[in-house]
Amino acid sequence: LQFYCSNVIAKAWNAVCPLVAKLKRFYEFSLRLENALRSLLEALTSPPYAPMQHLEREQALAKQFAEILHFTLSFDELKMTNPAIQNDFSYYRRTISRNRLNNQQLEAENEVNNEMANRMSLFYAEATPMLKTLSNATTKFVSENKTLPIEDTTDCLSTMACVCRVMLETPEYRCRFTNTDTVLFCMRVMVGVIILYDHVHPVGAFAKTSKIDMKGCIKVLKEQPSNSVEGLLNALRYTTRHLNDDSTSKQIRALLQ
Fold first, then answer.
1. Helices (H), 50-179
2. Where is the CYRIA/CYRIB Rac1 binding domain (predicted)?
3. What are the pLDDT digits (tens) for 157-190?
């Protein structure tokens, strides 16, 4: 029996180590995304151009911004539907902690030691870890660039949201989409910039004074098949800051129920 248990434990450990190594690579990638996002925001908001002028002049950078948001929402949707990620990582942490108490060190700790495991644990504890990283990066960008009017950042985000909404709801644009992946790309980018806007704007994206047409954006999402947008609607419900503020109309709350 002891041999059988040891064999099972060894198999479980050998199975979980490659998964933890992969989780580490995604965590480190999130740090690179954070730096990239801040650089892109600086390029897309710096004077003397208005947000729309920036997006027209710097289309390649705007596309990279959109690609980051697309990946972020894709990753977080997968993470939310895979609870095994945190279960496996919790098992890994318990194992290395138990071995440390026994003055043993496992080979896997050379790649993911206790300090790294603690940072990764905080990252994966978030419901939407990549989006949380980008939201924090955007907030930090605004707070550190005090000479840059906050409107320069929020106008850039609201302009991108408007462009995506128009592309999704206008037949002339929709007929150019050759596959559903393009529609999903636009939806993810739209939701991503709405969430970033809501984190950095003083009253958020849902207030009447918001420059984002939230009713139109939500309506566009709800016109799509429910299996492709439920994760995006949940992101608006649970990762925004101002949805439950008094300034949010009952109609918008009802749309997101």
1. 51-57, 59-80, 84-101, 114-125, 129-144, 150-169, 171-174
2. 10-253
3. 999 999 999 999 887 766 677 678 888 999 999 9
